[in-house]
Amino acid sequence: MTIKLKKWDVAEHLQTEEEMALYLEACLEEAGDDATLIVKALGDIARARGMTQLARDTGLGRESLYKALSGEGNPSFATIFKVLHALGLRLHAGVRHA
């Protein structure tokens, strides 16, 4: 008997806007000073929503978005804001308690 394993992809499980927002919020809480985690989370959400539509909504190229949001790219803050806006998401600031 052969067991086939498939790499787990969070993008396949983000079905609703609320799930996407909660996922980003959890990543923001866990990231500490790791900006790559936030960028990858945005990439996961973008793939769940559809990268082609996101490219249209942001005015950025689809391939450029894949690269920028892969965790290996280095997107500008302006790109992050365009992506957040197009996805209907916002960043929130709060006070961290020791």
Number of helical segments with 4 or more residues: 5
Give the topology string: H per helix, E per strand: HHHHH
Oligomer: single chain
The helix content is 55-70%
Poorly predicted runs: none
Radius of gyration: 14 Å
Distance between the termini: 52 Å
- For the record, the count of structural domains works out to 1
Mean pLDDT across the residues is 92
* Total strands: 0
GO molecular function, one term: DNA binding
Organism: Noviherbaspirillum pedocola
Protein name: Addiction module antidote protein
InterPro entries: Cro/C1-type_HTH, HI1420, Lambda_DNA-bd_dom_sf
Question: Your description of this structure?
Answer:
The chain is mostly helical and 98 residues long. It has one domain (16-87). Helices cover 57% and strands 0% of the residues. It contains 5 helices and no strands. It has helices at 17-31, 35-49, 51-58, 62-68, 77-87. Helix 1 runs antiparallel to helix 2 and helix 2 packs parallel to helix 5 (77-87). The chain is globular, with a radius of gyration of 14 Å. The termini are far apart. The mean pLDDT is 92. GO terms for molecular function: DNA binding. InterPro entries: Cro/C1-type_HTH, HI1420, Lambda_DNA-bd_dom_sf. Pfam families: dnstrm_HI1420. This is Addiction module antidote protein.
